[in-house]
Amino acid sequence: MCILEVALGNNPAVILTAEPTAALDSHRAQQVMELFAKIAHEENAVVK
Question: Which is it for the CA torsion 29, 32, 37, 38, positive or negative?
Fold first, then answer.
């Protein structure tokens, strides 16, 4: 999750991802997607 923390540290308005969960197990992949959904909702960001 360190890469995500660094990338999201500046509170970007747009978050572009390319298969962000490809190398993760299903539990971690779900956590990442929930994090993106939370950020999109709370910070009014766009996740693509």
Answer: positive
